Amino acid sequence: MAKKNKMKPRELREAQKKARQLKAAEINNNAAPAIAAMPAAQVIAPAAEKKKSSVKAAGMKYILVSENKMYITSFGKGNSAVLEYEVDKVDNNNYNKTQLSSKDNSNIELGDVNEVNITFSSKHGFESGVEINTSNPTHRSGESSSVRGDMLGLKSELEKRFFGKTFDDNIHIQLIYNILDIEKILAVYVTNIVYALNNMLGVKGSESYDDFMGYLSAQNTYYIFTHPDKSNLSDKVKGNIKKSLSKFNDLLKTKRLGYFGLEEPKTKDKRVSEAYKKRVYHMLAIVGQIRQSVFHDKSNELDEYLYSFIDIIDSEYRDTLDYLVDERFDSINKGFVQGNKVNISLLIDMMKGYEADDIIRLYYDFIVLKSQKNLGFSIKKLREKMLDEYGFRFKDKQYDSVRSKMYKLMDFLLFCNYYRNDVVAGEVLVRKLRFSMTDDEKEGIYADEAAKLWGKFRNDFENIADHMNGDVIKELGKADMDFDEKIIDSEKKNASDLLYFSKMIYMLTYFLDGKEINDLLTTLISKFDNIKEFLKIMKSSAVDVECELTAGYKLFNDSQRITNELFIVKNIASMRKPAASAKLTMFRDALTILGIDDNITDDRISEILKLKEKGKGIHGLRNFITNNVIESSRFVYLIKYANAQKIREVAKNEKVVMFVLGGIPDTQIERYYKSCVEFPDMNSSLEAKRSELARMIKNIRFDDFKNVKQQAKGRENVAKERAKAVIGLYLTVMYLLVKNLVNVNARYVIAIHCLERDFGLYKEIIPELASKNLKNDYRILSQTLCELCDNGDESPNLFLKKNKRLRKCVEVDINNADSNMTRKYRNCIAHLTVVRELKEYIGDIRTVDSYFSIYHYVMQRCITKRENDTKQEEKIKYEDDLLKNHGYTKDFVKALNSPFGYNIPRFKNLSIEQLFDRNEYLTEK
User: Fold this and answer.
1) What secondary structure letter does DSSP report for 209?
2) Distance of alpha carbon 381 from alpha carbon 809, whole angstroms
3) I want to staple 532 with a disulfide (CB 3.0 to 4.6 A). Which of 51, 151, 480, 559 is the partner?
4) Residues 6+ apart with CB under 8 A from 271
5) What is the reported pTM?
6) Can you give the C-alpha Rg of the chain in angstroms?
7) Are strands 94-99 and 117-122 parallel, antiparallel or unpaired?
């Protein structure tokens, strides 16, 4: 009898997952199921994969519809829209075309327009002159209006909420969708911030114990918060405030706010200490207020509108925002010239056509405000192309010690060229990049531009290199600089004069890491920029439609200003270094995450790390822990979102660690294996290498590092470098695990946010919902909309109305859930309970093959956890399935997600693993 070819566990998991994905792709009629269903690591992209549609590449931005007219726009400078044509329908297949743009500003040539298609060609970019077809957005089979209705049936209600009336166009609703996107991303980040702040208190057994943020409100002054009995609030509210005050004081005592860079002043002056506490309270109360605004429908309460409350509440909150922004600019400006005087001196010497004051202003824009990032292309990439092709000598080892300074000066010269001297050339480059279809085309465009620049800047680059001399730099560093300090004060005043909404966004960045700050600000800038363009088009003489925003949304009239301000916020915000006052707490967390019992005393920590001792060469271990753990952004992230002791326990689960390692690219695994393993067998299989790394992470102990010497040589230095690599790998793997689960949770946070918002909108048009409260039963919206379809086709929701088969599936899922189950699910999402309870249940999973499966198994165990409440039979059945199968139950996922069933595409994407997993998860770069 022939032996069976037995697959290794990891290979078997991959094969099983691929089979499930292929089946799901086939069921959902994907255009290319084999490719779409393959894990991201296995998909081989074409050599020149298209990154955008030919319509966008040819320069068309969007087609707006107002009544029977279409307005065709193209991409202008930056993100601006150029009104190109007005197209007016005469009869069934005849259209009048009126060009609105001048010949100099026009980017596209409009061809034939019929009932189904619109033909146009690009004047400057992608396949210039070649005709491209796009669909006619007014083509509606059998529909009376030329404007498409939305599938949820909420277009009119959204227009009334934002503009006070309805419109027969698609312009207002597109502007509204951009505002809704702002609220969605804020919902995610504020939820995560609230969880992180609560998590700093330490876990006491339930998600509700630590949720003191739920009772913080910017409606109360700091005095009321600290003296609730002297207010005229209700006894219940006073009691809640007292609980929050107690936990607020507990949080201050933990010193863990230091992880957010909040430095408690070392002073005996009670006024200074109290001022610090007051500022912290303001920051937390504003976060709590934003959370209330994005998680609950506040459309009828102006003082709780997300976009207006900060201008209405007590001025002490605005004083704190002023303080935070001014403090940041003071910190940046303090010693700006002193810290950059070598570079500024060199530039003044080289840039003969500029006044010294002008150079200082431009360098401030470059270093502080980072205006080069707003040009629409990469200065760094241009410089790299120039040096790769022509500037070989600048890569010589002799420049290693000054390379950063040299490249910064080169980049500044290129920045000045596009920012001041040749603005048109920059606009042309942006246009070329926009019209490019692939990454290869972009690389070619950068190479061509670099060739032009080389002849212009070769001598300047040579001049910079000649000044990269230690003696020259040292002399310039000693010299005094004569400059007018008012220049910097003026730059600060101009930059820090922000609207309070922008200052509030800056305040949120205190609680985020660098990647989160970039993601949040990039999205906000894009959305406000889009809103600005829609308002501009609405107000244009050609379109001229009403665009008066209702009271709660007046802020968006300043979208242009806010876009510019958020660029400044993005460039001055950064992940803050942990505060020095929290060092002992951080050492405790660092030692705990490396395997020491978290009950260790402060004295014992001081003894191990010699914190109280003085002398040369005795702080090697302290410095090693500081450099490789405490100063790691991944360690800080883990402490914010997890628990040091629990992270150490989760790391002992080899199945989970192997799964995470499986998502790290093979080349990275090779490097980790070589640097972490004392006697590496580089000929072993990747599976064996991952297995060895997982074993090392599982067995990591503090004792492995306690004898490491910071100032090591020879073999001792090799051991130190290996220890650094092991810690780096360990923190990376656990970071990827936690980060991905936080990302999965974010998808459900958005769904909850949309459910709360849509329920408020549907209440305005469905009488049956008028007296309902979503908190009593989160299924009520989906249930009511399904019933309206079954009882006479009265539902405004086209998703449910037009798909009876899927509607019946949603009804089954609604019946498989109950109000207690979905309420607990909602609360678990809001409090990131899966991350909190990961250690309790992850060890019971039989097969770990996706973050989706980890998330839902832990979530379902949390939902079915036996408490004092009486559980229904259906709930017990799901619990039995979980314990029997040691994996999540698909029907349970659908039942829990039944509140989202009114939006069928969202419901499917959140409930079916193969649809949820279409995008690649975060991996180690």
Assistant:
1) T
2) 52
3) 559
4) none
5) 0.88
6) 30
7) unpaired
Q: Report how far apart, in Å, the C-alpha atoms of 128 and of each of 51, 60, 82, 257, 344 are.
A: 18, 13, 18, 57, 44
Longest dimension (CA), the chain: 91
Structure tokens at 192: 């995560």
Strand partners, 132: 120
For residue 137, what are the CA distances in angstroms to 111, 176, 272, 436, 791? 16, 19, 62, 25, 32
**Is-contact 75 61, C-beta < 8 A?**
yes
Q: Is the pLDDT of residue 229 over 60?
A: yes
Residues 6+ positions from 554 with CB-CB distance below 8 Å: 307, 308
Give the number of C-alpha atoms closer than 13 A to the C-alpha of residue 909, restricted to the C-beta side.
Answer: 12
Q: What is the dihedral of CA 905, 910, 913, 919, to 10 degrees?
A: 80
**Whose structure tokens read 């008066």?**
548
Residue 692 confidence (pLDDT) above 70: yes
Any idea which residue has 């180690």 for tokens?
924
| Residue type at 779 in one-letter notation | R
Which of 436-445, 520-529, 748-757 comes out lowest in average pLDDT?
A: 436-445
Which pLDDT tens digit goes with each residue over 762-793? 999 999 898 999 999 999 999 999 999 987 76
736 in Cβ contact with 923 (< 8 Å): yes
Highest mean pLDDT among 47-61, 430-444, 817-831: 817-831
Work out the mean pLDDT of the chain and round it to a whole number: 86
CA separation (Å) from 328 to 6, 32, 334, 506? 61, 51, 10, 10
Structure tokens at 59: 């320069």
Mean pLDDT (whole number) for 318-330: 92
Under 8 Å between Cβ of 146 and 89: yes
Q: Which residue has the tokens 């894009």?
A: 526
